[in-house]
Amino acid sequence: MAEPRVFTFSQVAQHRSNKDCWVVINGRVLDVTRFLEEHPGGEEVILEVAGKEATKQFDAIGHSKAAQKMVLKYQVGVLEGAKVEEVDMNDDVVEMESNSKEMSAFVIKDGANYNKSISFYEFFVPLLVAALYFGYRCLTVPQY
Ligand code: HEM
């Protein structure tokens, strides 16, 4: 396998616009220019770390495994002095597919919880209104 290209921090720092955007994640230098528009978290967050080290910010979000594998797609080289593991891209493609299934299952599950909390309120709110109304009536109806 060919040696990856090695970049210094100052070389990376020259690519920090939305027309030419590089970031460093885990020692990998990534050209994410064409990914900016597609990024589910929006382009602004990536532009804030454009031309810089972005590992901390990337990890802080708790990106999915699929997102971590996606990083490899945009790699143009490695940062000078960084230790970077070699990864087999063929494995990654398979895992990325299975992860997207995981993600859609999560969305459906989340939707079911949302519906459950809606029906909880639909049941108790009218009950509470009725109880308040009867309470009010009992207190305000004149007692003969
Ligand atoms: C090449 C680098 C990056 C890739 C491939 C990537 C990929 C993704 C993907 C696939 C998602 C959807 C959720 C998930 O699968 O985890 C996502 C969400 C997000 N990303 Fe990134 N991302 C990158 C860099 C960054 C950086 C550097 C930041 C912050 C500075 C960031 C902030 C976010 C945020 C805020 C979200 C939304 C999370 C949410 O809605 O819960 N991403 N990213």
Can you give a write-up of this model?
Its main location: membrane. Keywords: Heme, Iron, Membrane, Metal-binding, Transmembrane, Transmembrane helix. This is Cytochrome b5 heme-binding domain-containing protein. It comes from Vigna mungo. InterPro entries: Cyt_B5-like_heme/steroid-bd, Cyt_B5-like_heme/steroid_sf, Cyt_B5_heme-BS, Cytochrome_b5. The chain starts with 5 loop residues before the first strand and ends with a helix. The radius of gyration is 26 Å and the shape is rod-shaped. It has two domains: 6-79, Cytochrome b5-like heme/steroid binding domain (Flavocytochrome B2, Chain A, domain 1, Roll), CATH 3.10.120; 88-144. Helices cover 53% and strands 13% of the residues. The protein is an alpha+beta fold and 144 residues long. The chain has five helices and five strands. Helix 4 runs antiparallel to helix 5. Mean pLDDT is 83; it is low at 92-111. The protein has a five-stranded mixed β-sheet. It binds protoporphyrin IX containing FE (HEM). Residues 23, 25, 30, 32, 35, 39-41, 45-46, 48-49, 54, 57-58, 61, 63-64, 66-67, 70-71, 74 line the site of protoporphyrin IX containing FE.
Q: What is the CATH C-level name of the largest domain?
A: Alpha Beta
Treating each run of at least 4 consecutive H or I residues as one helix, how many helices? 5
Q: Count all strands and give the number.
A: 5
Succession of helices and strands: EHEEEHHHEH
Hetero ligands: protoporphyrin IX containing FE
Q: Describe the biggest sheet?
A: 5 strands, mixed
Average the pLDDT over all residues and give the rounded result: 83
Helix/strand structural class: alpha+beta
- Anisotropy-based shape: rod-shaped
Identify low-pLDDT runs. Answer: 92-111
Radius of gyration: 26 Å
CATH topology of the largest domain: Flavocytochrome B2, Chain A, domain 1
Estimate what percentage of residues fall within beta strands: 5-15%
For this structure, what is the CATH homologous superfamily of the largest domain?
Cytochrome b5-like heme/steroid binding domain
